[in-house]
Amino acid sequence: MASKLRYPLPWRIKPCSPTNRSLLFDRSHLHLLLLLLLASLVLSSASQHAHEFCSIGDDSGCGSSSTKLLIKGGTVVNAHHKEVADVYVEDGIIASIGPNIVQVGDEVNIIDATGKYVMPGGIDPHTHLEMDFMETATIDDFFTGQAAALAGGTTMHIDFVIPINGDLSAGFESYVSKAKKSVMDYGFHMAITKWDEAVSKDMEVMVKEHGINSFKFFMAYKGALMINDELLLHGLERCKSLGALAMVHAENGDAVAEGQKRMIDLGITGPEGHALSRPPILEAEATARAIRLAGFVNTPLYVVHVMSIDAMEEIAKAKKSGQRVIGEPVVSGLVLDDSWLWHPDFTTAAKYVMSPPIRKAGHGEVLKAALSAGILQLVGTDHCTFNSTQKALGFDDFRKIPNGVNGIEERMHLIWDTMVETGLISVTDYVRITSTECARIFNIYPQKGAILEGSDADLIILNPNASFRVTSASHHSRSDTNVYEGRTGKGKVEVTISRGRVVWEDDTLKVTPGLGRYIKMKPFSYLFDGIEKADAAYLASLSAPVQRSRASS
Ligand code: URP
Ligand code: ZN
Ligand code: ZN
């Protein structure tokens, strides 16, 4: 019988049975094993949890051995339709959906979903796992971050590759290596941090060979990731020619630097200085500027982490004029407010530092309304975690607090509780904003983001009558803090299925490092349809060049 080797955190490795030993020394898994052992050593000091994970390459039954799965009697929800039906899965793919599917053979794993919702697993469009940033690195890597995601019902995420000294290929290779311990499917966006011929050429390589179809431009983080308008224009043009989606972190980085100096001069050095130094007006200005430059180039634009009413209104205005602009709020901006930054305890206040800042009470409600109205289209997390020791790097100066909050594990629950439970959106809308829209925008629909025959079997079963509670003691992130600490709500992801494997059930994770697959994303999504016609119409409208002769009449 195949063995079940498990690693109970805090990462003590149980003695291996003889069968396990042969598994451990299987050459094909040796490199992955070394990686996990290394990760285990690093984690042993940080983690206090007692979750169980399967061993590398354990294909035996960890995360459900059955390649056949029948989910009976649930309400199957897609972005535009829901019905009570059974879902039959074989070899990681949805094989059929319909009433009363009959079990064939014995080896089918049957799950009763009566009274529950069966939905596409969440897709998080915005994460930063193991990212070098602000003199440190995010504490969740492709193992712990993804384990957390699966425990919260997210089955795919798209992470941002950061070039190394501006070099895209070097950045890509480093992320390929970081992602080797993946336990679920993932894709990459790529940041552009400098401009020259090599970068322009490498963008094409990324799109055509490596399946990256989106590039992010940081308009803030002066002296680090920030780019200027000239670079943004070059980048927008290049994105357009490649059919890649341009993304922006929209804050006026020069003005932010001035705002920071202003706070320091006033003696405001704590976390509240972070919010005060970069008000919504700076987010709105950069959002408007990026939108206008994308309009000038006539290419679609994706604005990441829309945190304020002010920025959202710029997006609404552009959409009303027919421009293709996607706005992505993140869960922290929807459910939190900035009052935490004034908390007298530094550790508590610092954990809420992210950029653009979490705004005053009221912004989140309006952003949620914009989501329900379709002005904003999908929800991310910007999962970018630092523990309290890392946050303390900025104890004397808020400019040094690493920017970022958690959310990859909490997003699905918090959106359900604050938007579906409250009646703001329907269950089908929930699927649309947490999964389907992301798959469409990044051109992986209907492989992902749908419960259709032939789609990947990335599924969740959510019990609307159960409840959830968030605590740093029970979460799966490696961080010792959680910005949603103590939150409770209705609706619980009871089962997560990743490509046909049951990886989360009975509050237990069963994941296997190395089984996560890189999902290549093709360029020219639906957002590019008709762009060339608009360009032709523009050229035709110019009435130029005017033919003139030198001789005067
Ligand atoms: O504070 C944030 N958002 N950290 C992650 C980097 C970014 O700007 O997305
Ligand atoms: Zn950003
Ligand atoms: Zn981010």
TrEMBL record:
Pfam families, per this entry?
A: Amidohydro_1
Q: Which EC number(s) are documented for this chain?
A: 3.5.2.2
Gene Ontology CC annotations of this record: cytosol
Q: Which reaction does it catalyse?
A: 5,6-dihydrouracil + H2O = 3-(carbamoylamino)propanoate + H(+)
**Where in the sequence is the signal peptide annotated?**
1-44
The cross-references to InterPro entries, in alphabetical order and at most eight, read: Amidohydro-rel, Hydantoinase/dihydroPyrase, Metal-dep_hydrolase_composite, Metal_Hydrolase, Metallo-dep_Hydrolases_sf
Q: Would the keyword Repeat be found if you checked this record's keyword annotation?
A: no
Q: Name one GO molecular function term.
A: dihydropyrimidinase activity
Class in the EC hierarchy, top level = hydrolase
Q: Which domain of life is it from?
A: Eukaryota
GO BP term, example: pyrimidine nucleobase catabolic process
PTM: Carbamylation allows a single lysine to coordinate two divalent metal cations.
Output the CDD domains linked to this UniProt entry: D-HYD
Q: Per UniProt, which keywords does this protein have?
A: Hydrolase, Metal-binding, Signal, Zinc
Residues modified as N6-carboxylysine: K216
Q: Identify which cofactors the protein needs according to its UniProt entry.
A: Zn(2+)
Which residues belong to any copy of the Amidohydrolase-related domain?
A: 117-503
Q: Which Gene3D superfamilies match?
A: Metal-dependent hydrolases (3.20.20.140), Urease, subunit C, domain 1 (2.30.40.10)
PANTHER family of this UniProt entry? Answer: COLLAPSIN RESPONSE MEDIATOR PROTEIN (PTHR11647:SF1), HYDRANTOINASE/DIHYDROPYRIMIDINASE FAMILY MEMBER (PTHR11647)
Q: How does it assemble?
A: Homotetramer.
Protein family (similarity comment): Belongs to the metallo-dependent hydrolases superfamily. Hydantoinase/dihydropyrimidinase family.
Q: What is this protein called?
A: dihydropyrimidinase
Annotated organism of origin: Ananas comosus
